[in-house]
Amino acid sequence: GSKVANLARLAACDIGSGSTKMLVADVDTAQGRIVDTLWSIERPCSYGIDWKKSADGNLSDCMMAEGMDTLRSHLAKALELGVPASNVRAIATEVFRKAGNGLSFLARI
Question: What PANTHER family does this protein map onto (predicted)?
């Protein structure tokens, strides 16, 4: 096969209201397309349910600890697969905008 000149190994993390997903892929940055998917995972993390059950409008300490453990695990795998830390990106669901402590949680990531 032909070599891709603008190849970058990237990791994308989607921190959703019910799960956290990560995809590690080699991406042709000139074309904006995935050349090869190296790893993909989805792990349940019930941020949305936790926030809705909250009396004070915050995510619980337990939920945030579970979320951080999940993110650390995903990040470790991405780094193990050769993704430079500067090539890791994440997006988060609206739960983190609505929860009183959501933005401070994201700032720790």
Answer: EXOPOLYPHOSPHATASE (PTHR30005), RETROGRADE REGULATION PROTEIN 2 (PTHR30005:SF0)
pTM above 0.85? yes
Model pLDDT for residues 13-46, shown as the tens digit of each residue: 999 999 999 999 999 999 999 999 999 999 999 9
- Taking 3-state DSSP, the helix, strand and coil percentages for the chain, each rounded to the nearest 5, stand at 35, 35, 30
User: Based on the structure, what is the number of domains in the chain?
Assistant: 1
Q: Is residue 49 part of a domain?
A: yes
Q: Specify if 44 maps to a domain.
A: yes
Q: Cα(73)–Cα(24) distance, rounded to whole angstroms?
A: 13
| Torsion angle of C-alpha atoms 91, 97, 102, 107, degrees rounded to 10 | 50
